[in-house]
Specification:
Layout lengths: L4 E6 L2 E6 L10 H15 L6 E5 L4 E3 L4 H6 L2 H6 L2 H9 L5 E5 L2 E3 L1 H8 L2 E5 L3 E3 L13 H9 L1 H9 L4 E2 H7 L4 E3 L4 H13 L3 H13 L5 H15 L3 H12 L9
Length: about 260
């Protein structure tokens, strides 16, 4: 199996690099499988507390592999398990930072929407062009994009095929910051390293609470948050955090 992704480690942070530059990192079934397998491995590694995903300078990922899509029957697509892999990526508990450069289109944008924090450099071109080749987004794009940018802009991106710049994505709330191409990886790793210094249980519980807000009403969401807040009071990390705060020291969290 060819290495369609690469992985580097940086002091509690894993950096996954999509590695199909000749195809602008188009997401084939094999590539998605390798990505999911690596993310699951990292999710089970207690030394890894945050994950960064990036592509190449030309493309984070320019979509799904249209060659595969064009030749597959409806039943083959339905039974392939390809769509379910996106759900499994979404279920990763470790925080994930996406770093976008160049094209982030179709499945590439849908992958970014699965991540917890998205940043981009000023070359990023973002969109969901599926309707203009006779299909629709199939990895959550219609659902997650509208929750990120609102109905009108999401409809224009999906129906009219509008592509937006990093500046427009920042204004719409789709990304949290813009960098230069030269500093994109550095900035993404810095965010991930800041996450890695926090208490692992607190990070995972906070991530769960934020994601629950997409599916719950305010009253139910606040109740869920309150339950998690009470539960984490029983953790060793909470005691260590309080001790370190009083002593004005760096806390040594263990995830327990």
């Amino acid at each position: 199996m060819s290495a369609l992704i690469r992985c580097e480690r940086h002091q509690g942070v894993a950096h996954i690099i999509l590695n199909r530059p000749e195809k602008l990192n188009a997401l084939s079934a094999e590539m998605l499988t390798q990505l999911l397998e690596k993310m699951r491995e990292l999710d089970g590694d207690k030394q890894i507390r945050a994950i960064v995903i990036s592509g190449s300078a030309r493309a984070f990922a320019a979509g799904a592999d249209t060659g595969t899509l064009a030749t597959a029957s409806a039943i083959a697509l339905y039974t392939s398990g390809f769509s379910e892999k996106w759900d499994q990526i979404a279920a990763i508990e470790t925080p994930v930072v996406a770093a976008l450069s160049g094209y982030a289109l179709g499945g590439g944008l849908e992958l970014a929407l699965l991540c917890d924090i998205v940043i981009a450099d000023d070359t990023a071109i973002i969109g969901l062009p599926e309707t203009h080749i006779g299909i629709i987004p199939g990895a959550g794009g219609t659902q997650r994009l509208v929750k990120s940018v609102g109905k009108s802009l999401a409809m224009e991106i999906i129906l009219a095929g509008r592509k937006i710049t990093a500046a427009q994505a920042l204004a719409a709330g789709l990304i949290s910051r813009i960098t230069t191409p030269e500093t994109l990886t550095e900035q993404a790793l810095k965010i991930a390293q800041n996450i890695s210094r926090a208490a692992p249980l607190a990070i995972k519980m906070a991530k769960k609470a934020v994601l629950a807000s997409f599916d719950m009403g305010l009253t139910a969401g606040v109740s869920y948050e309150r339950s998690l807040s009470a539960l984490i009071a029983a953790s060793e990390d909470r005691n260590e955090g309080m001790r370190a705060l009083a002593a004005k020291e760096q806390a040594a969290f263990t995830g327990k």
